[in-house]
Amino acid sequence: MMDDFLDRLNLSQRKAALWDEGPLLVLAGPGSGKTATLTTRVARLVRNSENESFRILCLTFTRKAAAEMRERLLSMCPTSSGRVQLTTFHSFGTDILRQHGSHFGLSPNFEIIEDPERVRAVRDILAADTSFYTKILSAEKALGALDHLFQRAIEDADIPKLMRDPDAAAQLQRLFADYKQFLKTENCVDYGAILYFCEELLRSRPRLAKQLRTVYKYVCVDEFQDTNLVQFRLLRALAPERDANLFIVGDDDQIIYQWNGASPSRINELAKHYDLTSIQLPENYRCPPDVVELANSLIQHNSDRSPGKRPLMPMKPPTTQGSVINVIAASTEIDEAQTVARQVATRLQTGSIPRDIAVLARNSKLLIQVQGALGAVGVKAHVQQRKSQFESGPMRFIVSCLKLAAVRSDEELVSNVTKALSDSIDTEIGTAEVIELASQANGDHLLALSTLATGNSGRFPVELCDAISSLVSGNFEGFLRTGFGYFDDREHGSPDGTERFAEYPSERQVWRTVIGELGGESEAYAMTLGQFLQELTLANKTPEPPSDAVRCFTVHASKGMEFEHVFLVGLAEDQLPSFQAIKAGDSSREMQEERRNCFVAITRTLQTLTMSYAHSYNGWSKTSSRFLREMGLDVT
User: Fold this and answer.
1) Complete DSSP assignment for 348-379
2) Angstrom distance (rounded) from CA 397 to CA 464
3) Going by DSSP bridges, is the β-strand pair 246-250/216-221 parallel, antiparallel, or unpaired?
4) Which stretch of 5-14, 179-188, 490-499 has the lowest confidence by average pLDDT?
């Protein structure tokens, strides 16, 4: 059966999938079949070692990608579930801290805090010594600096080397140390601290790192070009030997997260640390030949590419049905949006469905303009906006109750629960009532909430009383099943057919997706409450776009996707490339990243690519993007 999967691969893919020992870099261009290559290789390693106990670690960047790879891997090799750890960097780091964070004073049920809690923590630190923190203007700006330090694995002693102003450096140095100490004292971490602490732990505890290397004989990394420095250093701690069994999949032409710490130099650094062999997958199975030609013409203008890299090879036959490439020149951004909207409407009238079509732009402002123009011609459009937290009353109630079950003395969580309740049901229970009753019950606010709910049984839904009682007794699965049962029934039973709880249906589907990515209910609900909350916090809360809407994404959000028909708007100077990139200069790292943004956008195309620009944006005259000319297109 494994031979069947290998036979489906081309020669380059097959060579990579058959790789055994030592470090390998797979330079996988867009649409080159990298996922099939990686999963086939992992399945083969498992099949060839059925009597051995080592595990394979596969790290990627999104839960969605990990879940898709896991599903594909299980179809190839059903026995792989116990042998392969397929997860994100942050979930892996969280797991390490859960098991070994006691070296830092962290207990396994540590909380992962989000922006509101982070801002409050930094404000408290700054307020404790206002005479010292004179250079730090706000907690929000300070958090940006702290995130930068976490992403780049900067140690306290090195902060003065990064800044010209010694007073500002001294203040940031102390704030960083105080913030890290706050996290450890309060038994919590934030998103950036997870990998920072994990890397520090493995570096300071070499025996632990050695133990992990014994468990994970092979390490695989997908989308390596997106790694920041702390992720790279974590990888080095896991696999430090020059001949390590490291299987790296990446593409330096698709580095578009420099603002998040990714760098073109990271792929080059691999060769400094490892006896590296490289295999390129230049075959493109996604895009029409005309689009591949544009992509090759564009990206060759970047100087920071891997040396000797071959152009993409189109594997699709040329189309015989109309033009693949279309360029729209408009007078203003309003005219551009309206022209794109009319073309989208025409395509929908000729047989395409909304999910076939995507509108991409460098920034969301242009997408909102197009969304309005599409609405004016009767086409529903959805602008994707990332969400890190649930917003509907029922979902906030569910999550807040789970958090209160983990930290029963937290008065702020009580307030969150009661506010969510008031948004979800007609009966209100006041925060003060819960706090007062809890003072008589050893500070157990969850027990107090349950007592008050039961005492108001005539007005308080009995299902939610039962749900909270389950949580008090430690049965969070029972709480979830009963609580969701109540809200689902009310949503489906709305007499006029309208949504009773705004945002709840889409967020409920997000919840189902998250549970699926955790391995389904049987695995997710078998976790401890602390572990479940950690994984829930790390999960993306962004709902899927409606199936009946044209999808509008920023280029960054479209990464890893593909669409039948792509409309790339705003291809003008100061838009794509951005003003900042133009100011930095044509050979700057900023300009090269903007070119990669354009490269990523056009290579999302399965059938047709329409690019547009206007001669005026916000009343300012603009010229067409240099990237259009670099693609060899005749524009003014």
Assistant:
1) HHTT--GGGEEEEESSHHHHHHHHHHHHHTT-
2) 10
3) parallel
4) 490-499
pLDDT of residue 1: 55
Mapped onto helix, strand or coil, the DSSP state of residue 554 is strand
> pLDDT by residue (tens digit) across 190-216?
999 999 999 999 999 999 999 999 999
Q: In sequence order, what DSSP letters do the residues of 511-540 get, joined into one string?
A: HHHHHHHTT-HHHHTTS-HHHHHHHHHHS-
Could you tell me which of 313, 448, 379, 244 has the C-alpha nearest to residue 30?
313
pLDDT (mean) for 540-558 = 92
What's at 211, amino acid-wise? Q
Please name the residues in contact with 48: beta carbons below 8 A apart, sequence gap of 6 or more. none
Tokens of 510: 């997000």
Can you tell me the distance from the alpha carbon of 85 to that of 54, in angstroms, rounded to the nearest whole number?
A: 11
318 in helix, strand or coil? coil
Q: How far apart are CA 501 and CA 506, in angstroms?
A: 10
Is the Cα torsion angle 141, 143, 146, 148 positive or negative in sign?
A: negative
- Residue 532, Cβ density class (10 Å: 0-12 exposed, 13-18 middle, ≥19 buried): buried
* Sign of the Cα pseudo-torsion (358, 362, 368, 369, in order): negative
Q: Enumerate residues 6+ apart whose C-beta is below 8 A from 437.
A: 448, 451, 452
Q: Give the CA angle between residues 509, 490, 533 to the nearest 5°.
A: 45
Let me know: does 309 contact 336? Beta carbons within 8 Å.
no
Q: What is the DSSP string of 148-208?
A: HHHHTT--GGGGGGG-S-HHHHHHHHHHHHHHHHHHHHTTEE-HHHHHHHHHHHHHH-HHH
Answer yes or no: is pLDDT of 631 > 90. Answer: yes
Enter the DSSP assignment of 88: E
Q: What are phi and psi of 64, to 5 degrees?
A: -60, -45
Alpha helices for 359-473 (secondary structure H):
364-376, 393-406, 411-424, 431-438, 445-455, 462-472
Question: Angle at CA 70, nearest 5°, toward 68 and 73?
Answer: 110
Report CA dihedral (326, 605, 576, 28) to the nearest 10 degrees: -140
Provide the whole-model pTM.
0.91
Name the residue among 601, 593, 628, 603 with its Cα closest to residue 303: 593
Judge contact between 355 and 346, C-beta under 8 A.
no
Residue 483's identity, in one-letter code, is G
> DSSP per residue over 275-315, as a string?
--EEEEE-EESSS-HHHHHHHHHHHTT-SSSPTTPPPPEE-
**Residue among 209, 119, 202 at smallest CA distance from 153:** 202
Interval 212-241: pLDDT, tens? 999 999 999 999 999 999 999 999 999 999
Distance of CA 102 to the CA centre of its chain: 28
Neighbours of 44 (CB within 10 A): 20
* DSSP string computed for 483-494: HHHHHHHHHHT-
